[in-house]
Amino acid sequence: MTIMKIAFIIFNGVTWLDMIGCYEPITKLKSNNFLPDLSWDICSFTEANKDLFGLEIKPWKIKNSLADYDAIIVPGGIGTRQLQRDKDFITWLQTATNVPYKISVCTGSLLLSAAGFLTNKSATTNYQEYEALKPYCKQVLDKRIVDDENTITAGAVTASIDLGLYLCEKWAGKQAANVIRKKIDYHG
Asked: In this structure, is residue 125 part of a structural domain?
């Protein structure tokens, strides 16, 4: 399947590096003409989306259905702890039920699990939250990236760059990922 449209999910209490770490390499798939038809939206359930220190990014779409995307990418952050119990937010996230790729960074996996997307899947999360994730998936693995049938989870914050490059390779091939890795001067 060719990835054409991605929803980057943001929320209050997000860790921006979780999102930006994978956003940067993925968007280079378009700017470097590896996936020229690639598009993305910054999606949220609310207008206000700040990290713990007040840095805010405005969403492009608010409360839009996620059903028409090829992939959703959910970052982590302190806000995931409250949102995993927010029925309205989780119902919105579940509009992605039929989306082919469900992806998270760090504690974004807690939101994927609350939406039921990690049931019978192997997954990872921030190493401090392994126990919190265990009841909601088949197994929690101590790995930077776990890909279980296109439900892809990444570990703590710096794994977001690894995830972005992993997705570049998965969607556009090893050569594309290597070109992008060099462009961002990443040696991980």
From this structure: no
